[in-house]
């Protein structure tokens, strides 16, 4: 099965490393969109962490979920990785939609621990 995809590639390499990032602008003829996401983790081992990011793109107008990956704020001498997949789209009364997300950070810190996080994305952004 072939699915037409359009987008652009940007070179992020330097003399020692070479990499590219692919930015998809449409999937199967439908434009893609992203969502903002932010929040505060649970309070564990005497602190919490803030996080703020964007989801990965997904096609508009079809049932879908989004991948996400971000790093928390630097608190108590360390950060944590947050990554996962949102739940399905939840329609908003005035149009658009949001997604719920939840999970646990990676384990880190001088006293190894993780934090719980959860929330809902912002409305879709093109």
TrEMBL record:
<dbReference type="InterPro" id="IPR024307">
    <property type="entry name" value="YmaF"/>
</dbReference>
<protein>
    <recommendedName>
        <fullName>YmaF family protein</fullName>
    </recommendedName>
</protein>
<dbReference type="Pfam" id="PF12788">
    <property type="entry name" value="YmaF"/>
</dbReference>
């Amino acid at each position: 099965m072939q699915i037409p995809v359009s987008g652009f590639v940007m070179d992020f390499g330097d003399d020692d490393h070479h990499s590219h990032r692919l930015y998809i602008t449409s999937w199967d003829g439908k434009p893609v969109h992203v969502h903002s996401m932010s929040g505060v983790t649970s309070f564990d081992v005497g602190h919490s962490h803030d996080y703020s990011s964007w989801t990965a793109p997904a096609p508009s107008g079809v049932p879908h979920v989004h991948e996400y990956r971000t790093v928390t704020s630097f608190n108590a001498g360390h950060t944590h990785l947050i990554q996962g997949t949102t739940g399905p789209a939840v329609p908003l009364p005035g149009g658009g939609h949001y997604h719920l997300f939840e999970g646990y950070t990676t384990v880190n810190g001088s006293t190894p621990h993780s934090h719980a996080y959860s929330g809902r994305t912002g409305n879709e952004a093109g």
